[in-house]
Amino acid sequence: MIRFYTKMHCPLCVEARELLDLLNTAAIPVEEIDIYQSDALLEKYQLLIPVIAYKDSAVYGNEINIENISSLLAE
């Protein structure tokens, strides 16, 4: 399961989700998590979103690109 941490009104999150959907050729299920639903998540990811987490690794914010998502999903 891929965990996609996001929030409302986040253009970078929209772009990241589109890239994730495009590169997720194995159709791995994606759980979209709004960080505003939990104080702990908000504190942890507030300045880092969007975050794509898979297995034991994650890609954060401005590091999200085709190469990094592809590498993450290849694990």
Please, could you describe this protein's structure?
By secondary structure, the protein is of the alpha+beta class. A hairpin with a 2-residue loop joins strand 3 and strand 4. The chain is 37% helix and 24% strand.
Brief overview, please?
By secondary structure, the chain is an alpha+beta fold. The protein is built from three helices and four strands; from the N terminus they run βαβαββα.
Highlighted features:
75 residues; alpha+beta; 3 helices; 4 strands
Topology:
Layout: E1 2-6, H1 11-23, E2 30-34, H2 39-45, E3 51-54, E4 57-60, H3 66-73
Parallel strand pairs: 1-2
Antiparallel strand pairs: 1-3, 3-4
Distance between the termini: 12 Å
Question: What oligomeric assembly is this protein in?
Answer: single chain
Rg for CA atoms: 11 Å
Shape: globular
Major sheet: 4 strands, mixed
Helical segment tally? 3
- Element string (H = helix, E = strand): EHEHEEH
Output the strand order for the largest sheet. 2-1-3-4
Helix content: 25-40%
> Mean of residue pLDDT?
93
Number of strands: 4
> Beta-sheet strand percentage?
15-25%
Low-confidence stretches: none
Classification by helices and strands:
alpha+beta
